[in-house]
Every structure is written in structure tokens, then in C-alpha cells.
Amino acid sequence: KADAETLQRVYGISFPDPKQLKEWEKIQEEAAKRDHRKLGKEQELFFFHELSPGSCFFQPKGAHIYNTLMGFIRSEYRKRGFQEVISPNIYNAKLWQTSGHWQHYAENMFSFESEKETFALKPMNCPGHCLMFDHRNRSWRELPLRMADFGVLHRNELSGALTGLTRVRRFQQDDAHIFCMPDQIRQEITGCLDFLRHVYTIFGFTFNLVLSTRPEKYLGEIEVWNEAEKALADSLDKFGEPWKENPGDGAFYGPKIDITIMDALKRNHQCATIQLDFQLPIRFNLNYVDDNGEKKRPVIIHRAVLGSVERMIAILTENYAGKWPFWLSPRQVMVVPVGPAYDDYADTVRQRLHEAGFMVEADLDAGDTMNKK
């Protein structure tokens, strides 16, 4: 109604004393300087375009960072017994109905009609990995089966929620699913925790661990939940890092460990996840044959360390303030000749370093003095 009262929501923040206000203002000022959108433009790493909202264009320097991160994770996969797979991007809606995503997540998926059938771009890899597990008979000797996938994912985020690289529609994850027997859960969770500690230590991040347990509404038998939660708690104790429990905050299909990292500005980000899943194996009727020749149901562990590679690049850009560690740097070497007479030699040096695998440039601008270069 035209004469109805209107309300306006106003957000504010207050501080007990001027000192804390100044500290907060200093952090905000530093955060603005480190904004990954600003640094990404200045360093020619990436950009966005209105014709593909929420999907990032990575330029050569940004693609180097992207591929270096994935190469790093791939090298760790080989050491830790993961097998990389490649799965389709498009699936018939029947797959998502089986997994339960169509009933609970369809509004966040890009779907379309083709030949009187409904299809959708995958927003996650797990249902496809279930098909890969189930395409032939499996033996207990194959478990744990650690299946890794860098497949492209699409999620239909609201346009107003899109924020640089931290919230996008098109992204990739260091996604993996571990198919294992119940008595292998502890060992696999310990391996996942060791994996993330190794990666985060290299990045210079500290992290916090939270065990989220059975919610009020859950699927499955309570005895299975109790054993799974105990397995996670035992693994966390063995890991040796402090952790907290968040009762009732687990997913309806299994308990999980939430991991948040802290950056240089003391901001927390959730990237890694370790999630037990009892329901997808049931929905897809997954089985393996045990050592007695009987069919048994595997458990799935969903896990990621980087999470979204795009989001991790945003976090790293701001954490390092654009001053990249050498192994990740998009500009590792700059060859600067002392004068035009040495340009050819400088370019030869640049070429040799390039062939050796370094990101290298040569400043051959005759218009600049040596001091300016």
C-alpha cells in the first residue's frame, strides 16, 4: 500500500575504545590495497566480462598460477595414492534425481532440454564418480579407491552474489572421493588431515578444525553415525592439532570436519572439507565383494584441500599482497640489459630461461634509462 510505513535496514559496527577502531580501520585500509580484484587487474592475471557473468578469463600470468597450483596438487596425489579421472560435464537429470540433488539443488544448476530429455551441467563431481565406481564389480582388495577430479563445475549463483573470484559460477576444485570400507575410515581421515597440513604449511596458513556431528534430521542408523563420529574424533586426536566439536551441524548424510584457514590479515576462510557420506552409496546401490565373498556397502569420503581453485587464488593474492612466492610467481625473472647493444644477448638469456620452465621477461625498451628499468 502506498501509505504503508517503509523500513530501512541499517548496518553498523562499534568499538569499545578508539584504539580498536583505529586497528580496524588499518586492517580495512590494508585489505583494500590487497583486494584480489585490484591486484588481478594490475598484474594482468584475470578479468571478468559481462557476456559471461561469474566466469573468469585467466590471462597467461593468471593461468600460470592456476596450473602451478593444480600441478602441485597432482604431484601430491601421486605420492598419496590418488588416481586422477576425467568425468563428463553434462548429465541427464535422472542422475541428479538418483543422487538427490534434483530435489534439493536444482535451482542452483544450469539445466536445458535436448531431444525431449532434461540435462544439467554438473555442480559437483560425486554422482559421476559413483557411476565410475559402479561400472564394474569391485573387490575389497581395490579399497580404499581414491578418485581425484579437476573437472569444471557450474553453479547458478545469483548475479548479486557474484564477487570477484570468491563467488563464481564456473570453477574447478581439487575434488576427490575416497571409496573405502568402514574400518578404513580412520586411516583415510588421518591421510586427508596430513595432506591439508602439508599444503597449508607451504602456503603459510594456520588453520582451525571443527567436527560437526549428527543433526536432528539425519539419514541412516544411529549406530553407524556414532561409529563414524568416533572415527573422526579419534583421527583428529591422533592428528595432534587442537579441534572443537560443533554438535548437530553435520550434513544429513554424514558427519564432517570443517577446516578454516587464517590469512595475513587474520581473516578466516573455509576451503578444505572432509565429509563422510553413507547415503550416496545407498542411492547408487554401490557394492564391493569382501574377503568372504559377500557384498558390502562402501563409505564415501568427500575431500578437498584447495577447494575452489579460483577462490584459493583470490585468498593467496590477498594473503601475499601480490608478492608471490617464487614457485607460484607469474614473473619469476626479468632480464634487464645495461644498454641496447646487449639486447640480443638479453633475449637469448630470456629464451634459455623460458625453455628451462621459468616465467621470464626481458625489458628491451630503448626509451627507458637503466635506473628507470
From TrEMBL:
Belongs to the class-II aminoacyl-tRNA synthetase family. This is threonine--tRNA ligase. GO terms for molecular function: ATP binding; threonine-tRNA ligase activity. The keyword ATP-binding applies. InterPro entries: aa-tRNA-synt_IIb, aa-tRNA-synth_II, aa-tRNA-synth_II/BPL/LPL, Anticodon-bd, Anticodon-bd_dom_sf, Thr-tRNA-ligase_IIa, ThrRS_core. CDD domains: ThrRS_core (cd00771). Its EC number is 6.1.1.3. The keyword Oxidoreductase does not apply. SUPFAM superfamilies: Class II aaRS ABD-related, Class II aaRS and biotin synthetases. GO terms for cellular component: mitochondrion. It catalyses: tRNA(Thr) + L-threonine + ATP = L-threonyl-tRNA(Thr) + AMP + diphosphate + H(+). PROSITE patterns: AA_TRNA_LIGASE_II. It comes from the Eukaryota. One of its GO terms (biological process) is threonyl-tRNA aminoacylation. It is an enzyme of class 6 (ligase). Residues 60-325 form the Aminoacyl-transfer RNA synthetases class-II family profile domain. Keywords: Aminoacyl-tRNA synthetase, ATP-binding, Ligase, Nucleotide-binding, Protein biosynthesis.
